[in-house]
Amino acid sequence: MMNLSGLFYRLRCSLLHIESRLLQAAGIDRQLAPPLAVNVPSHWPQIQQEQQNSEQPPGILDSILWMAAPKKRRTLEVNRTRRRAEEKHVRVQVNIEPCQECGHLKQKHILCGFCYAKVSKETARIRKQILEMEGGPLRAPAVETVVIYESETLSQQDKDKRIVEMPRKRPLWFSQ
Question: Are 164 and 146 in contact (CB under 8 A)?
């Protein structure tokens, strides 16, 4: 167990360290600033000058962040009132409607998750077909792409565009 004089020695070293850091942060020269004075009884041991200059490992009080502590304990009623506040209750969603394509419930302003998954799968198939046709993404021409499914014909507008032919029927939800 640490004796009382050792504790005060470490406290004084910590205060001197804090003082030097504050002066350094303020940009004040140490020789121009007044020293930190601590009033202690005369029977405490004095620190020799050579001990103060030697590098000391950081003490236990150097790494403590001193914070305020509550003066009184919160009662059960106050705690429960705070935890069960109206702002923390789950609110009922009123902007939910069925998707017009698949019938699953979704929010009004958000894309249906099931429809998005179907579109993602179809897009992945189209990309795979493009990869097979051209051999890689870096060989793609810089023109617009048109996807033609089985039993569809090419229009006059699409003659100058890149054509990707899919060997299956167009899904009902995948409009042209």
Answer: yes
Query: Which ranges of 27-151 does DSSP label H, i.e. alpha helix?
Result: 49-53, 76-83, 113-134
pTM listed for this prediction: 0.45
Please write the tens of the pLDDT for every residue from 21-34: 887 787 776 665 55
Q: Which residues of 129-158 are buried (b: 16+ CB within 10 A; e: fewer)?
A: ebeeeeeeeeeeeeeeebbbeeeeeeeeee
Distance CA 37, CA 39 (A): 7
Q: Please report how many Cα atoms fall inside a 13 Å half-sphere around the Cα of residue 3, on the Cβ side.
A: 4
The yes-or-no verdict on residue 50 having pLDDT over 50 is no
Q: What percentage of the chain carries pLDDT values higher than 90?
A: 19
Cβ–Cβ under 8 Å, residues 126 and 164: yes
For Cα atoms 19, 20, 26, give the angle at the middle one, nearest 5 degrees: 90
Per-residue tokens: 21: 């850091």
* 145: enclosing H helix or E strand: strand 145-148
| Cα–Cα–Cα angle for 82, 74, 63, rounded to 5 degrees | 105
Q: pLDDT tens digits, residue range 135-144?
A: 776 777 778 8
